[in-house]
Amino acid sequence: MGRHSNLLKLATEHAKFKSRPDTSNPSQAKRSKTETKYRFKSDRSNVKNIKLNFPTKKKYSCQLSLSIILYARSIDTLRVIRHDDTLRSIEAEHHESSISFFDLFSDGDFRTIPTGHLDKLEERFVAALSALHTNRIFYPISAKHVGFLQSSRDSAEPQLYLQYNSKARWASNKLPKTWQADQLSHARCLFRVVKMLLRLSTCWPGEHIAFNIQEQRDLETYVRKLGPPSHHVDLLVNSAAPMTTRLASEVMLYLVKKARAEEGYIENACDFFDSLFGKCVPLLGSIATPSVICEIYHQLRLRQYKTKIHEYDQAINKDLGDAVVRSSPPTVATFICCRAEIASLLGDDDKDKWWLMAKNFTSSYSPREE
User: Fold this and answer.
1) How many CA atoms lie within 13 A of 239 on its CB side?
2) pTM of the full predicted structure?
3) What is the DSSP string of 294-317?
4) Is the dihedral of CA 133, 139, 142, 145 positive or negative?
5) Using the 8-state DSSP alphabet, how is residue 135 labeled?
């Protein structure tokens, strides 16, 4: 329901194009097969004292309890030095050299972390998260909050490090009943995605990896809910193929949102749309029904898929092939709204027609079809 409402609102009341400063197109740095080892230093020179002030007693008590619980389980995070109940302030040590999942694979290089060690860190994180849940602490998962820290011994593997999470809070009755299971699921999804990104980071330019349907569902969740940085999405665009239509629609939406803020991403969004449907996507009038439009997008996607299937190193099974070309009303609605937004950002003469098509389409299918 939420996605349908958002798309319908976007199509009905699209924002006016705003001028933005000219920025260069993000560089697509080539990755090398040569292994690059990132050194996670943990010496005292990289430790910085920070002071956190909280507007309410609840936020203050939650963050203080969170730090105590994590340290009791030997999880590296902000180490509380002193705190003031009256001022609702905490002074803590923060390791500036820690690196979050968000920062992995930036600048075109990659970090090598053994998969077996990632498995161990995943279990430690899930156990720590379960301890927070036992104490009724709601801890939203994102790529910015989970990361690594190397011990003082260079030979040791990096350890789990949890960044300051300002969105952590005491759980309330307003949360859905599944909130604990959802967060544990997102935690495991995040580690599975990191392993996939590690594989993608070793691809040569033009080389692709075809992830199975479940893996692509994890990537879909990551793009939609866990706050990936642009360089992670760039890895998907450049090396994850073929994409299921659902994952492609999430990536398309991400690129369009990015293009609103950075003009250089408009070209990225255009290129990705063309790679999915070709350069000659028809602008259909109000006469075309949603079923006809879905069929047209299905045929366009099928045609593009068939022209590129020879580029994939491994055989694509039927289930994955069907998921790559299947065009449901929700995904088609996303693509049409994104195409309309691109037209607006480029100042195309037919932008109003694209938005009219988007409005007619999104108001013609039921959210239950999602």
Assistant:
1) 22
2) 0.82
3) HHHHHHHHHHHHHHHGGG-SSPPP
4) negative
5) T
